Amino acid sequence: MENQIKRAIVVGGAGFIGSHLTDALLDAGWRVDVIDNLSGGKMELVNPRANFFNKDIRNYNDIVPIIAGSDVVFHLAALPRVQYSIDFPQETNEVNAGGTLNVLQAAKEGRVKRVVYSGSSSAYGNQETMPLHEGLRAIPVSPYALQKYIGEEYARIYSEIHGLQTVTLRYFNVYGTRMDPEGAYALVIGRFIKLRKEGKSLTITGTGKQTRDFTHIRDVVRANMLAAESMNVGRGEAINIGAGRNISMNTLAEMIGGDIEYVPARKEPLHTLANNQRAKELLGWEPSIQIEEGIAELREEAGL
After folding, report:
1. Which of 91, 103, 251, 254 is deepest in the core (most CB within 10 A)?
2. What is the pLDDT of residues 51-91, one digit of tens each?
């Protein structure tokens, strides 16, 4: 593999994380094929150096020939957001659980070397133990969290039964450029910055005392690159990818600036905080960007 151009499939490569990962892979000399149905991704985010396939992972026969023979499949496609999964559980299950099974089966049939699955820290649910570590039992509290956990369990099982190398990266609240600030299910940092630019109040659910471990997109991309080639993983491991530090929504709002408006709480975990020791041990990964630095970068980009 070292002496030839490696081929990657980025499933969901027109999205926020997937497009950043596609760029990094191309810059590192990989050949990249992107699969995305553009339901959440945007064509303008797809690097023109990548081969693009407008396909839906719910249609197994459409993705099999694209995935076959690749070195690594990065599976990032999902219908995200907790509230959306509560409102539309059947649709999100078809994509997040069923679509993941299709990707894994296509990878097995196509003799893919490794699948790097984008999991979610939402699988932990509400835990008494902090920081969250991979030895804790998953307690999903939303359809989205359950669906993402089902995906990582499918990945683990495919490693055990079929010998397909898989590794799950459990992301903790990824943020950075290209976040989607639109709609009811927008990522909170992107939404806050958009509201601040428009001179509107920042809307916070509940008391604002709930905390999140925000992880910068460049750190997440680097974790994927390491997971693709590390000799220490590939047996269905789940690995936290989080900064290891959390802040409250109130603190986040203060960092971005502007007035605050409180709205009713949602059904979601109160706190997240990653124990990232396993990522350090297995991947040689640790976070490099503090939240203050990341927010300052986004504020500057937005002209705030």
Report:
1. 103
2. 999 999 999 999 999 999 999 999 999 998 888 899 999 99
Between the CA of residue 29 and those of 8, 114, 115, 154, what are the distances in Å?
A: 11, 18, 19, 30
CATH no. for residue 147? 3.40.50.720
| Residue 140, domain extent | 7-174+215-244+273-289
Summarised one tens digit per residue, pLDDT across range 100-157 is 999 999 999 999 999 999 999 999 998 989 999 999 999 999 999 999 999 999 999 9
Phi, psi of 198, deg, nearest 5:
-85, 0
Q: Is residue 249 included in any domain, yes or no?
A: no
Beta-bridged to residue 104, according to DSSP, are: none
For residue 199, the one-letter residue type is: G
Q: Which residues pair with 165 in a beta bridge?
A: 114
Active-site residue 144, yes or no? yes
Integer Cα distance of 195 and 175 in angstroms: 16
How many domains does the chain fold into?
1
Catalytic residue among 144, 154, 171, 175: 144
Structure tokens at 211: 């905390």
CB burial of residue 14 (10 Å; 0-12, 13-18, 19+): buried
